[in-house]
Specification:
Helices cover 44% and strands 26% of the residues. It is α/β, with parallel strands linked by helices.
Length: 258
């Protein structure tokens, strides 16, 4: 990551670290279940969880993996994840502060790398994917989940504006075609995939980023003033002129290192 983007991510997520530990949407669901199912089939003795956030993915994999290494760029986030995971009694998770573009591990160190709901913050996807491929052993798997970008220009621009107003460190959600190209360029082959819709409770979703009342009001006006087709594409529900929920699509990918 470039220094400016690193600082923005750290500033955005440091104060919200504990909110990610307690977030029900991050704690579980069909999306995490899919990654865990893939991971169980792989049976890797060492797993690296990149951009661990609240630590829920690392904790889930620690239930059947001898060694899990949990990394994050934002130190308060890593500390919150460590407190959460240690509080469950899990003792097989290590915590390392690091940037995904400069992982402090030797080549071919892990059988599986997980990355859940983080890649849309990476300004340079290819260097991150190449670094992940480097630390994977040949035949090892990247198990990745992220927001799926929209193929239609108007809808992609609409949801990008929503995301960036809520979280200025958001860069962009990639389309399926873009993911496939980046993985191939990094030396990985797409093996399995899935797409899931996930409902976002508006109040919780905006509160987690600690938006000011004015910024939140401006975001809501932007959504309400946008064309109907934009709101319909993301299943916005509105009651008495107030946004209640919306849905986005999550892409889940298993790609093996060549």
């Amino acid at each position: 990551m470039i220094p400016g983007q690193k600082a923005q991510v750290q500033a955005q997520f440091g104060p919200s670290a504990q909110d990610y530990v307690t977030s029900a949407g991050h704690a579980g669901g069909a999306d995490l279940d899919r990654l865990v199912a893939w991971g169980r089939k792989r049976g890797a003795p060492r797993v690296l969880d990149v951009a661990t956030g609240g630590g829920h993915t690392a904790l889930a994999f620690s239930a059947f993996t001898p060694t899990v290494v949990s990394t994050d760029l934002t130190l308060p986030m890593l500390e919150a994840a460590r407190g959460f995971i240690r509080g469950t009694g899990a003792v097989n998770v290590r915590f390392v502060a690091s940037d995904v573009e400069a992982l402090p591990f030797r080549d071919a160190s892990f059988g599986v790398v997980t990355c859940r709901l983080a890649a849309h913050h990476f300004p340079a996807i290819l260097p991150a994917m190449k670094e992940i491929a480097r630390v994977l052993r040949p035949g090892g798997s990247l198990l990745l989940q992220d927001i799926l970008g929209h193929d239609e220009t108007e809808l992609a621009a609409f949801i990008l504006e929503v995301e960036k107003r809520r979280d200025p460190s958001h860069v962009r959600a990639l389309t399926h075609r873009e993911w496939e190209a980046f993985l191939k360029a990094a030396g990985m082959t797409l093996i399995d995939e899935g797409v899931l819709a996930k409902s976002r409770p508006w109040e919780e979703w905006t509160a987690r980023m600690r938006m000011t009342p004015a910024a939140k009001a401006d975001l809501e006006r932007f959504v309400l003033d946008s064309p109907d087709r934009c709101r319909e594409a993301f299943s916005f529900t509105i009651e008495h002129g107030r946004i209640q929920t919306f849905s986005d699509r999550l892409i889940l990918l298993r790609a093996d290192r060549d």
